[in-house]
Amino acid sequence: MPHPDLILVNGTIYTVDPAQPLAAAIAVTDGRISAVGSSAEIEHLAGPSTEVRDLAGAFLMPGLIDAHNHHAIAGEEELFQLRLPIGAHLDGIVSAVRDHAARSSEEAWIVGGPWASDRLGEISSADALARLDEAAGGRPVMLSDDSHHNRWVNSRALELAGVSAEHDGVVVDADGRPTGVLFEAAGIPVARAHRAAGGLTPEQSRLASQRGVEILNSFGVTAFQDAAVSAPTLEALRSLDASGDLDAWVVSSMLINDEIFGYTPIGEDLVFDGEQYRTEHHRPDFVKIFLDGVPPTRTGAFIEPYLPDDVHGAHHHGETLLPPEELTDWLRRVAQRGLSAKIHCTGDASAHAVLNAVEELREEGFADTRYHVAHGQFIHPDDITRFAELGVVAEISPFIWVPGPIVEAIREVLPRERADRMQPNRDLLDAGAVVAGGSDWPVSVSPNAWEGIHGLVTREDPSGQYPGALWPEQAITLEEAIAAFTIGAASALGLAEETGSLEVGKSADFILLDRDPFAHPAGELVQTTVAETWFSGRRVYRRD
């Protein structure tokens, strides 16, 4: 047996392995965990070339796993787009666009975001659009909201995309004039017009993906699922791993339908062609289906109606984007090709439709295919137990199980007693469901899992900006919250044999923290920071 390459001793090691939850030392050989135990046991394995490091009591745990993000979009936003001030009001948005325009060529697109969901009322007017037009100086503008489902664009962008007030999803004022606000798929022509004007080169796509992974590493993430990839992102990931530059396990979700991004190809032309992008660390194992939109724009699908408004009336429920038979047919076809599915569901009606479809497929014999209800903010009480019964993962993202701007926006469209019953995580765990944590970054401002973990345990806003707790009865323990971002997510992604816990034979993916989170009050969990991140036995991040 070869001597380890690395031994770490005298640590506080939380393994997330029920058979051996705590240890003081680990050994790493050829990028894999080769031993876990006491310092004396592991130190004895050292050879003449083994690096032995004394952790001096530092807390070490498995690398974090993000079950839902958009890493390449986040990397693109940081490298190539305008970043609006967090929570900016109309004045701040217009000012940021004006400043960016002053540094841009006359033909350049101004692309960026995010604007907060609860600013929708401020920007939804022809007067606000006129201010955006003036600030841009004739340049086309496309700004995404914090859900990344909706856009605010200026008149020049509408013109280039051929979008007018008559199109579905175009928000108009009382006089029928466009405001530039585009809900869901209404923004796709603008996104395509931007790409037609240039978009990203293959090298820029590679840089965006690599930057996204670098940021994830800095927050301790060593595995993740990109929830909606384009063909350029698939190629970027393949290329990065082929050159030894992909510092995470990545599971990709290939789009069957596209309600927000404007990618091509999608559907059959993409999902059945993903195998060519597979590498050691990149697994194009999932498809992605958008089954509804988001509640703030009344596009989430609910069993009970939204609050009445002038546009939708008193009986608007939203609707699923695919009828039941088409959803089941797609899930059957991809399962036959060995592909699992992540299905975007924010309303309880869409989650119910997924569970019904999976029940039919399980009865047909598709026993091993993985299915995720992605987001799952609202689940009908009668459907809670069906997650475990049908083997459907509750993939919870973004970090909106606490008071915040998206919750405030939802409270404006749903009765308060329903709006405040979001993310029944305690009930799902008690019913035996696999719960996998995701950031939905860049919908969440950062992919910092400790913000999510803080909220899961306290149900309180970790930033302290929004008071109170959201449905505190659904709080879970710290052990359960960490599991959601480690072994729970690994199981959901099909990576549990590779990562998610510190066990012999698994990839040496681990992080060192600045503290033992179990030794501090729950209200301080968000203060936890990552000192080092290791992937496959290599240090890929170290805090300065």
Describe the structure.
The protein is of the alpha/beta class and 544 residues long. The chain is built from 19 helices and 24 strands. Helix 3 runs parallel beside helix 5, helix 8 (202-218) packs across helix 9 (231-242) and helix 11 (324-336) crosses helix 12. The longest helix has 17 residues, at 202-218. The model has no long low-confidence stretch (mean pLDDT 97).
**What about the largest sheet?**
8 strands, parallel
Integer average pLDDT? 97
Strand order of the largest sheet: 8-15-16-17-18-19-20-21
In whole angstroms, the N-to-C terminal distance is 36 Å
User: How much β-strand is present in the residues?
Assistant: 15-25%
Q: Count of DSSP helices?
A: 19
Tell me roughly what share of residues is in helical segments: 25-40%
> How big is the Rg?
23 Å
What is the overall silhouette?
A: globular
Name the structural class.
alpha/beta
Total strands: the figure is 24
> Stretches where pLDDT falls below 50 for ≥5 residues?
none
Descriptive key words:
31% helix, alpha/beta, globular, 24 strands, eight-stranded parallel beta sheet
Task: Outline the fold blueprint.
Layout: E1 6-9, E2 12-14, E3 22-23, E4 25-29, E5 32-37, H1 39-43, E6 51-54, E7 59-62, E8 64-69, H2 71-80, E9 82-83, H3 90-102, E10 110-115, H4 120-123, H5 126-136, E11 141-145, E12 151-153, H6 155-161, E13 170-172, E14 178-182, H7 188-196, H8 202-218, E15 221-229, H9 231-242, E16 249-255, H10 268-271, E17 282-290, H11 324-336, E18 340-345, H12 348-363, E19 371-375, H13 384-390, E20 392-396, H14 405-411, H15 416-419, H16 425-430, E21 435-437, H17 449-458, H18 478-484, H19 487-493, E22 510-513, E23 530-535, E24 538-542
Parallel strand pairs: 1-6, 2-7, 8-15, 9-10, 10-11, 15-16, 16-17, 17-18, 18-19, 19-20, 20-21
Antiparallel strand pairs: 1-4, 2-3, 4-5, 7-22, 11-12, 12-14, 13-14, 22-23, 23-24
Helix pairs in contact: 2-8, 3-5, 6-7, 8-9, 11-12
